[in-house]
Structure formats: structure tokens, C-alpha cells
Amino acid sequence: MLRFRAVLVLAVLASLISFAKFSPCESTSWATPDQYIHACYSDLPSLFGARGLDKNDWPYTSELNSVEYPVLTGMVMFLTAKFVDSPIAYFNLNVIFLVLLFIGLVLLIRKMKPEFSYLLPLAPAMIASLFINWDLWAIITMMLAIYWFDRKSYLFSALAIGISISTKFLPIFLLLPIAFILWRQDRIKDLLKYLITTAVVWLAINLPFALTTPTGWWRFYKLNLERAADWGSLWLAFNQLGLNLTNLNYLSLLLLLIGITSIAIFLFEIKSTPTLASVAFIVLATVMVASKVYSPQYVLWLTPLAVIALTSTKDLPAFWIWQGGEVIYHIAIWQHLASVTGATFGLPAAGYAGLTLLRIATTLYLIWILAKRALKARNPQGSLFDLLFEASKPYP
Fold first, then answer.
1. Closest to 120 in 3D by CA, of 360, 367, 302
2. Residues facing residue 270 across a β-bridge
3. Maximum distance among all alpha carbons in the chain?
4. Which end of the chain is less congested by CB atoms within 10 angstroms, N or C?
5. What is the mean pLDDT of residues 141-159?
6. CA 38 – CA 15 distance, rounded (Å)
7. Contact yes or no for 252/291 (Cβ under 8 A)
């Protein structure tokens, strides 16, 4: 286990390397296609003017131009904009907060998985993506929710996950393994309290916005419901390779339901009750594979979850293979965007689609390795497979 000081130094170095990666865009004011060619695009300066933050507009007032994020992210965007007057200053101010959040995240991972905590500040895809968006605000609260849940501090965990869902919506899918774990431990009252607390926290944060600016508040949810096949998704890759699928909303929902059903079967197959830390990566990575979009910063969510899911050094090759896939994809998306925004060179659609599928394959590989490791000890009291298939054998 690395000492506190060593982990802190690694986190600071990772932050500096990431800032150096993004800094070329500051000298060109994030001009296109340069920001894609140099892979230093960030939503932070881009949305400063595009969403009226430079004018101190309330982020949920406009019906068509409200910020496309849940309310706590919108508040971070709005409040930090009050202290600056340019995209560069806005970027730098937000970077300061994101660096502090990243350092806090690294130190939290050290408490959760000390033997593998060095992986987070060394993960290249993590370093490459730190300052693309505001996701770290939600990730730190999600990780706190996992930390407290596995230590049976259910109230603190429910409060943290309610805040996290109000910052970015992804952590809502962790309620599935949370419900399973508490049900399997016969803690039905704790489960009900957990779900009610999470709902109350979410409502307390969201209702003032939903009641006062309902259209702007709803824009985030509307965009996700109506989204077409978007960057990084399985569905866009299929389209770019000539397989034009219709009824995308139904297909993505069907794949998500298949994924969730597979996760439910997996959870029933495990001999002992899993920790939330051990299965959170499998859940969120599965959701992201089925999703209609995979934003480049989503690797920030998956990397800490992958680190806390590792159980043996035998898992490390799969972790690094997955990180390699993410790094390749990180380069691919920016070079493809460069090619469609006027650059004289770049990655064509077919190449981008192929590398998207490579990233998805490496994600599925890590999911498989983690799941296979957990399934080495099967449930001796009968599995869900037995319930579904074996019970029918006595019947003609």
C-alpha cells in the first residue's frame, strides 16, 4: 500500500499532466478544428458563452437553451461563472475545483482499495479526460455513497447518492445492486429507508427548479429521451458501418433490459452477498454499453469503479487492456471530430466506428473478467438458472 504522501503526489502529478494536455487550447481560445486535433476540447469554456453563463443568465430559464445537466451541475456552472469574465478564466477556475475533487477522489480510493489505489492517478484515460466536463462533482458523491454503503452507514450513503443523482443521473442505476444487497441481507426496512431517503433528497433538490422553471429543468431529461444515436455509442458505430437501425429508443431500451436482467442473474449466482464496490463497475459499464451516447469523460466514472472492483493482481492485465481501449477511443473521437469540422486530416467514420467497437469490446472483457472471478464460488442453495430452467424438468 502506498503511503498517503505518495498517493497525494501521484494525484497532483496526474492533475498537472492533464492540465498540460488541455493547455494548448487556451492559446487558441478553443478554436475548431484545433481543439479536436490537439485533443484538448472541453465543455467548460464551450458552454460558458453557449448557455448564457457569461451573461449570468439563470441556467434553467430558457426553453431551448437551458443547460443540459441536472440541477446541481447547473448550479456549479452558474455560480463559478459569477467570478469570471472570459472562457479562459472560467476554464481555469473550474479546473481548480476539479483538481481538488480529483485529489479527494484518489484519497478516498486509497481508503476503499488501498492495494490498488495507485492505479487511479496512473490510469492514462483518466488523466486524459479530467477537465472535459463537470462529472467529478457527481463522481465524488457517488464514491462516497459506495464507501458508506459498504460500511453500513446507510443514511449517509442515501444522502450522498441522492445528491449524486441530482448532479449527474448515472448513479441512479446503482439502486439496483443496492436493493439486491439489502434484500439478500434481509434488511427490508433498511432498503425502504434507503430508497425513501434518496427520493426525498432528490425531490428536495429538484422540486424548486421543477416548479419554477419546469421546461428548462425538464430539458436534460427530454434530450436524453429523444436523443438519436450519438458519439461513442454502439448504435452510431452500427450506423457508420452501414447498418441503419430503426426504432433506436426501443432497441437501446431492449439492450438495457437484457443487460439489467443479466446483472440480476449474475447477482443471484454469487455465493455470498457482494459488496457494492465489487459490482458497481459491472452495473454502470453495462448501462453505458447499451446507452445511446458514450461521452469521452464517462471513463472518469468507470475508472474508480474498476479500481475498487479489483480483487487480485491477476485482474490487472484486463484493467490495462480496458484502459488501452479507452485511450485509443479518446484519440479516435477527437480525430474523427477534427475530420468532420474542416481539418485536412483525421479519422474517417468507418475507422471511428471500428475503434468505438474496440472500446466496447475491451469494456465487455473487463466486465467478463470481474464477473468470472466473482462466480468462482457459486450459490450452493440453488441458482437463478436452476429456478428458471431446472424446475421445469419434471414436467412433460
1. 302
2. 378
3. 76
4. C
5. 98
6. 18
7. yes
